[in-house]
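hey
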């Protein structure tokens, strides 16, 4: 049995290796370790041995990641036609693909129904509104259908990622039995689904358990289901001193909360699979001693890693060039013309100097995925690490080239 810790901290990465990757590929640079992705999948499968584990691909849709997760035996939960397409590109077959339609544009339904009709008759469509059922019927879809439930209880690391009690998501709990009953005439009704929110840990786990309990009750009420999917949301520790989730305990509590059901329990983690498998490397452009703080300007900002600006998320930071220098409180900012473009505030960091290389931890989930080209900043490159047999060393390969300034006008040039 190989060593497979619950969390890989930023300090566990090989600093020299990261330094040489930055030299070769430039910065900002995402690094994703596929071996760690595989380890995370293995821990999930070990904690949920008789359950169905589906990867919420929105956390990281890179082809190398999807191929790794597929080989590790996890199915794919997709939020859009684009994600479904990426899953197929990575070798997934319809019977391992679950498309969760959230207010789906017509084009998405067209694509998914075509894929179902032509090549993937076993794909599952999850609907979150009675209206979506009608729109599928209009397109001639009579395949595997799952209904997303709004369980009335949410959880998550920030209010912006709590979905369980948000009216946008899912069919109101009390209306589900009736909708399912009617849908059984025209579709192969296979499951019910709910998702509390993202980044659940600590006291929030209680809310997650309540969601699971409600889903168990509903499953017993409606009968005849293949699966009950209680969503994703397993949190990872972003702070260095935060303990990791006890996945086995969470799995046990989930099984207990769902109770006796005549269906397979399914979970769909995204973050847990990729968060600690990724780091973001960035170089210091500017150091400014302001009266209030030392402002450290780096080449990654809110367009490279949006989470701190959007959710005030904490990400561990290390100065790989000067780890032995005295720490001073710094505010690390990006090159974007917005005051939200801050990666951390008043964080003690070994005194940064121009040209230093900084590493940002837990960047594998919702990192590259949420990049943009705002301020006409090209998106970063991404390198994947993967061992080629010897456990001590791994190969690095570029899996996403750096976007070039010229790429920014491509869509205009091509009309
Ligand atoms: N299933 C459904 C239906 C979801 O909407 C999501 C996440 C997941 C599963 C996976 O949740 P996870 O295991 O990754 O927590 N951008 C935010 C996270 C938004 C998550 C949206 N839905 C962030 O960076 O924190």
């Amino acid at each position: 049995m190989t060593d497979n810790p619950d969390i890989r901290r930023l300090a566990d990465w090989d600093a020299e290796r990261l330094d040489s990757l930055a030299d070769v590929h430039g910065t900002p640079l995402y690094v994703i370790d596929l071996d760690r992705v595989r380890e995370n999948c293995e821990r999930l499968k070990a904690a949920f041995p008789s359950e169905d584990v589906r990867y919420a691909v929105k956390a990281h849709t890179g082809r190398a990641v999807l191929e790794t997760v597929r080989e590790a035996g996890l199915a794919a939960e997709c939020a859009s036609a684009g994600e479904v397409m990426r899953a197929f590109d990575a070798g997934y077959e319809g019977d391992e693909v679950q498309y969760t339609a959230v207010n789906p544009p017509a084009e998405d339904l067209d694509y998914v129904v075509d894929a179902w009709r032509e090549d993937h008759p076993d794909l599952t469509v999850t609907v979150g509104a009675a209206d979506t059922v009608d729109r599928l019927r209009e397109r001639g879809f009579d395949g595997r259908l799952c209904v997303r439930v709004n369980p009335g209880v949410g959880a998550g690391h920030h209010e912006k990622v709590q979905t369980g009690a948000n009216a946008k998501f899912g069919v109101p709990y009390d209306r589900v039995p009736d909708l399912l009953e009617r849908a059984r005439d025209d579709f192969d009704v296979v499951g019910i689904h709910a998702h509390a929110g993202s980044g659940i840990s600590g006291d929030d786990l209680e809310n997650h358990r309540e969601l699971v309990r409600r889903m168990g009750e509903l499953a017993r009420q409606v009968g005849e289901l293949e699966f009950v999917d209680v969503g994703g949301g397993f949190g990872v520790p972003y702070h260095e001193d935060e303990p990791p989730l006890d996945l086995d305990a969470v799995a046990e509590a989930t099984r207990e909360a769902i109770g006796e059901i005549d269906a397979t329990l399914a979970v769909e983690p995204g973050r847990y699979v990729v968060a600690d498998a990724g780091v973001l490397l960035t170089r210091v452009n500017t150091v400014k001693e302001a009266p209030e703080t030392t402002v450290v300007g780096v080449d990654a900002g809110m367009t490279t890693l949006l989470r701190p600006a959007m959710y005030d998320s904490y990400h561990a930071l290390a100065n790989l060039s000067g780890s032995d220098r005295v720490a001073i409180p710094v505010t690390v900012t990006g090159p974007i013309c917005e005051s939200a473009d801050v990666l951390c505030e008043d964080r003690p960091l070994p005194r940064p100097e121009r040209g230093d290389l900084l590493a940002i931890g837990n960047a594998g989930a919702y990192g590259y995925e949420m990049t943009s080209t705002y301020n006409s900043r090209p998106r970063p490159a991404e390198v994947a690490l993967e061992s080629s047999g010897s456990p001590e060393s791994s190969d690095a390969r570029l899996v996403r080239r750096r976007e070039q300034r010229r790429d920014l006008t491509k869509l205009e040039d091509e009309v």
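The longest strand covers residues 278-289. The mean pLDDT is 96.
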